[in-house]
Amino acid sequence: MTYDAGITSPRIILHADMDCFYAAVEMHDHPQYAAKPVIVGADPQGGTGRGVVSTCSYEARAFGIRSAMPISQAYRLCPDAVFIRPDMTRYVQVSEEIMEILRSLGFRFQQVSIDEAFLDVSPVGNFIAAQKRAEEMKHEIRIQCGISCSLGIAPTKIVAKIASDFHKPDGLTVVEPGDVPAFLAPLPVRRIPGIGNKTEMELHALGIQTIGNLAAYDVQGLLARFGRSAVALHEAALGIDESEVAESDGIKSISKETTFGQDTGDSGEIVATMEALIGEVYRSLAAENLYFKTVTVRIRYEGFVTKTKAKSLLHNHNDEATIRGCAHELLRELYDGRKIRRLGLRLSGLWKPDTRQQVLF
Ligand code: TTP
Ligand code: MG
Fold this sequence. Notes:
4 domains, five-stranded mixed beta sheet, Alpha-Beta Plaits, MutS, DNA mismatch repair protein, domain I, 12 strands, DNA polymerase, domain 1, 14 helices, globular, binds thymidine-5'-triphosphate, alpha+beta, binds magnesium ion
């Protein structure tokens, strides 16, 4: 039998997303919180606290509590919940353990946030074998890290991500190529990653409620409303996404350092040097079209004592102002008045958007 030119077997993409990640880590570390409403976020201060919920356990979600909700509102909804301040160091540590498990499986791997990653599991051959591997991954993460996750398997990244969110917590959703339209059609448009309040409202105004409505909508009509984003939006609704699972081009971090001609305690000189470093790392970041999540400042004092401090942000950023804010904050926290020999600045947690998503989101 001859093979039709142009026919290639579908890719098999897996997306993994940890369930209520920060809360899950806390519940694992403190078994007495198991099965309780657990809320990680700002201090509720008896209902008068400012700040927001980072995340909460599924038991707390039953009370209507959600990420980004004011903590005072969460307190009103469930005053008896366990309220915990975030411990980023611990969450990053567990995240690294999980990512190591996923990375070491030998598939193409891409971490996308503290608790999410894509794997291109096409080499397993078919969707049934992929499902079996996925069950093993869930088991491995549960045994080694004590937390549950939800997985989605589909022929494209965008559908795999929607699928991992489809059944949470502890879900596994497989969408084979022929089932993509039927899977997506009934879901609300909001399920498309990157569609926020504003786009959702604009779509509703056009009478588009479901992904199926969007897929069936005339592209010309979308172009009038959404301009260049229209095509990406429409393709997303059709589950089309040709972007590959890829780490950020192998660049793991961007760092710059300056050694002072003479050890210095002159705050003006130190701040000006930091400004120069900010400009340098920013230019490298922009040149590579990368986003970062973590900023690290490193100070080597006279006598070769080195101090390092890092700040990890929730989302990816690519602007100089965010680098500047973090860098000066870390410098203030780290600087103890001694003379400095060398100053360094590093960006890590790098991520590269694919151009298609960049247009849309
Ligand atoms: P998510 O994966 O969006 O949420 P989650 O893991 O808590 O819950 P789900 O089961 O729905 O996946 O985010 C991962 C972590 O990022 C989350 O545990 C806490 C943090 N986070 C915030 O701090 N603020 C936010 O608004 C969101 C959405 C997440
Ligand atoms: Mg999650």
